Amino acid sequence: MPNIKRIQKKLKAKYGEKVQVTFEDDIIRLTGELDNWDDVFDACSMAATKNSRIHVVNDIKFTGAEIPPMRVPSLIDTVLEGKTPDVLVIGGGISGCAIARELSKWEINVMLLEKNADFAMGASGANDGEVHVGFDLSKGSLKQKYVLLGNHMYDKLCSDLSVPFRREGQYALFTQSWLFFPVFFLCLWRKYHDGVTDTHFLTRKKILKAEPTFDRKIRFGVYNDSAGVVCPYGLTIAYAENAAENGVEAYLNAAVLSIDTDENGVITAVNTNRGTVRPRVVINAAGVFADDIAEMAHDRFYSIHPRRGTNSIQDRKSAKIIDTIASVQHINLKQQSKSHTKGGGLMRTVHNNILAGPDAVECYEKENTATRPESIKVTYDKQKGTVPLASERDIITYFTGVRAPTFEEDFVIEWGRHCSNMLHCGGIQSPGITAAPAFAIDIADMVVEYLSRLIPINKKAKWQPKRKAVPSLKDMSPAKRAALIAKNPDYGIIVCRCEEISKGEIIDALNRPLCPPTVDAIKKRIRPGMGRCQGGFCSPLVTQIIAEHENCALSDVRKASAESIICYGETKGGDTE
Amino acid sequence: MIRTCDVLVIGGGPAGLAAAIAADKEGAKVILIERESRLGGILKQCIHDGFGLVRFGEKLSGPEYAERFIDEFKERGIEAKTLTFVTSVERIKTGFKATIVSREGIEVIETTSLILATGCRERTSKQVFIHGTRPSGVFTAGTAQHYTNLLGQLPTKRCVILGSGDIGLIMARRLTLEGAEVLGVYEVKSTPSGLTRNIHQCLNDFDIPLHLSHTVTRVFGQDRLTAVEVAKVDEKMKPIPGTEEIIECDALILSVGLIPENEIAETLDVQIDGRTKGPRCDATLMTTVPGIFSCGNALHVNDLVDYVSESGETAGKNAAHFALGMERTLVEIKPNENILYIVPQVLDIKAKNDAVVVYFRSKDVYNKATFRIIADNKIVFEKRYAFLRPPEMEKIVADFSKFNLREYSTITAEVEVDAK
Amino acid sequence: MKIVCITCPRGCTIDIEKVGSDWQVSGNSCNKGREFAINEMTKPMRTICSTVKTTFPSAPVLPCRVSADIPKDKIFDVMKEINKVVVDKPLTRGDVIIKDVLGLGVDVISTSDLLAQI
């Protein structure tokens, strides 16, 4: 039971009459009006208890700017009209795709909807790909539970789904000597109490011997062997493909616009831009929009506060500066709660680029992924303290994603409180990629248990756990590569010189289930355009291959969404005349 | 099956073609590897004229210039493997072993010497720290040129060009001719990067404004680009807050510099010059690794194809005469602070060096300046210039043969400025 | 009057003034510069390089140019003519695509053997 009086007092001290708080129905609801988003965030955070299942719902009217509505695809059709799946999963990020794949083990109809033009277009696509160990988490939270379970699943999972994954270990580094004993004891606590069994406390000497590129100012650190890196969008897409191979119906460009419920709070219909679906169960894995979807079902008992993060990718040439994950931790006692920004870490990605970031900035826009110069600055100012050789000059690209935390900063994995057939998978943020494989299994079990009360439900006899990826020829032995080229000469035509991707691989990717025929989709799946020239050389060639494959005009090929035109048509004798 | 040759040329653009022809003329067995389906390199898409004035005394278009070399290449019966990609090169006792992949499969070629004529790539929007969203409609000038000139597709109807490099200027004219509207060319420096005549015939002729000391800071648009933000910059080329302006357009075309492509050279431990971003070479255009030669835009970014061909010929000729076990004693040519870069960077004092072709660029715009090469306090070469401009590469020929160079000799190159 | 010569990459800045019925030219490095400057004052000429549409799917356009300079004010008129053409034969380098375009006494010619090679 939260102490509402105390919260009220604190809010009044800071915001006067501008913010009010009520407690009803197990919800701490904040109302009022504020014109500064940082104040909105601070007020809600003030009212929230970390990891609590009693959530803060933010009903404060933000008057500082207009919060843009959810972007909806321009496409309108009736493909989904009248469909009655047993389970409807909303959201094609890591959560939705993993859940869909786990549900595909059962003889039920599962439908997966994603509003964007591809999977992993939100936080899962802009993620750093770290497979966490949970050193920063205390026992008792869902995050901590699932990060431990999830981490252990990665070897088998990535082997099954043919997704590159590597355990490369992680350092948390410290430069402040006064933290020596607190960190030393934290290590023991994590190891013996919280179950992070691979935790090692290391002295400066040991660290610098193992990692000579690290900054000399480091005093001591914590090392965990089991930390790893994965391709986050690769894993999301692999989950979606495997789900589709096992019978899940997945639709892109399909946004949920409204939800109909009956008097008992049961969802009867889900209305989308592609028609109305009548599912038995709805899984809300809508990321930053999870609270909006919850609201549509009159079941909003938590609020998402968007938190932006930007990662930078360095040229592979600079890969030698680090072959693990590391970041310097700096504790500032005076200024703890106010600093919403952090500089993230430094790591070698699974594709052997260096990744720096992400930072963390609270923001009111859920879909504003525009990058800003200050993110790069914050990140590199910090990361040069990890590895002094880290340099902005080696950056080949950077991108921003928006995390979807609740004010309690834990996952929300539970059935609706007022809507009985909506299962919430909300508040999924770091370490969401690590945790998803584990919570997807629990969520699938919850759904199966629910459905088994309504219909007979059986495991699929012929469930296929393995996904065959597009072959990556550059990683093959010459003999194997030659044999494949002999079968299909297109494998011998290199289209992307930076990443050494052949025409054959691009055509294979286009032929995979659920692959939209767009330049970005191909880039995400097999990497042409991910290298140092960023598609300068290969993007016209990829565009051409897509046009040939789809038997369409070059000007009909898109970068990603339907409106992301690449070319406007022929320069002469064509439609521009 | 392992094939052998004397000279393996990587890259079938103007540098590689000239190198292969020159090596063939010297009697070497040459194989040329080209990644694309046709020879000619980037000239295939440079359909504008102005090529070959130095060499042929004619104003040719890019394809015409390239095809003159391709004709000679074919007449000589030199072997070219097109649509073929070099995946790796290793050093072996007898020289180098290249692994290539093509529609035919995987092949290994062993060669005595290797010519890297791999050209350059364009700097991208993120490399000049443009921020904002990730819409379609952000093109490097070369990519826009590929769509327009090779595929006949219009990549923009209304665009802003960042960078006044020659490709940017040429594309401003090309797109205008093809019916697009070019709203302006923005240049972060206070002087244009491209040739003066291109400012004149590509921008002025079509009333396209050139905004110096301006840059693009942000792009907008969720799907296709809808606008860019431009801002004035200070002397340090940093945007000045408050000078931002939003320009509605559908594309941003970038001509913000070229980077020599030396990924193969780097795997072979060839030393790269931080100024040119190409290999450090001697007068024969041999890199710091014996047997590996560099030419064209992989060596340094040229502004005239004529010089690209010339460096190809130098590399080709010398690669043909390269013999294993050849010993060199390299002495550095040290440029002074007014020189952006100089090629060659080193001299082999054991070589004749009686006609060393030297290319250099000044660091800034200088009116009335003297270029000098000094060896052990003696003037090897001296020339007065009415003006020197970084976009315009200068070429001179110097004779070092009378200066009795030793391994402890000091060679410097300087530009002395009368008045800035 | 100051003019930038576009004849060669040197791009000389030329001073030109009319003295009586004669042109006084300075700043040029060669005779072509003088010629250019005078032309620029009397009848400015330019070249055009573009592409023409083809019927060949693997080479949708063929590069072309005018065989000699045309009056500057005719650039867009000539472009209109170039945009109308569709090449359906494997023309080679130098082949005439449009004979005597707009009666200017200049042809539009192919600048590549591209179509003959594919």
Model description:
The complex is a heterotrimer of chains A (577), B (420) and C (118). Chain A contains 14 helices and 26 strands. Chain A has 577 residues and is of the alpha+beta class. Chain A folds into 4 domains: 59 residues, Histidine-containing Protein, Chain: A (2-Layer Sandwich); 232 residues, FAD/NAD(P)-binding domain (3-Layer(bba) Sandwich); 157 residues, D-Amino Acid Oxidase, Chain A, domain 2; 84 residues, Arc Repressor Mutant, subunit A (Orthogonal Bundle). In chain A, the strands form 6 sheets. In chain A, strands 8, 9, 10, 17, 18, 19, 20, 21 and 22 form a 9-stranded mixed sheet that branches. With 420 residues, chain B is an alpha/beta fold. Chain B folds into 3 domains: 191 residues, FAD/NAD(P)-binding domain, CATH 3.50.50.60; 133 residues, FAD/NAD(P)-binding domain (3-Layer(bba) Sandwich); 92 residues, Immunoglobulin-like (Sandwich), CATH 2.60.40. In chain B, strands 1, 2, 5, 6, 7, 8 and 20 form a 7-stranded mixed sheet that branches. A 5-stranded parallel sheet of chain B has the order 11-18-12-13-14. Chain B has a 5-stranded mixed sheet with strand order 23-21-28-25-26, with no helix packed on it. In chain B, helix 1 packs parallel to helix 3, helix 1 packs parallel to helix 8 and helix 4 runs parallel beside helix 5. The model of chain B has no long low-confidence stretch (mean pLDDT 96). With 118 residues, chain C is of the alpha+beta class. Chain C folds into 2 domains: 41 residues, no CATH class; 69 residues, CPE0013-like (CPE0013-like fold, Roll). Helices cover 22% and strands 33% of the residues of chain C. Chain C contains 3 helices and 10 strands; from the N terminus they run E-E-E-H-E-E-E-E-H-E-E-E-H. In chain C, the strands form 3 sheets. In chain C, strands 8-5-6-10-9 form a 5-stranded mixed sheet. A 3-stranded antiparallel sheet of chain C has the order 1-2-3, covered by helices on one side. Chain C is elongated.
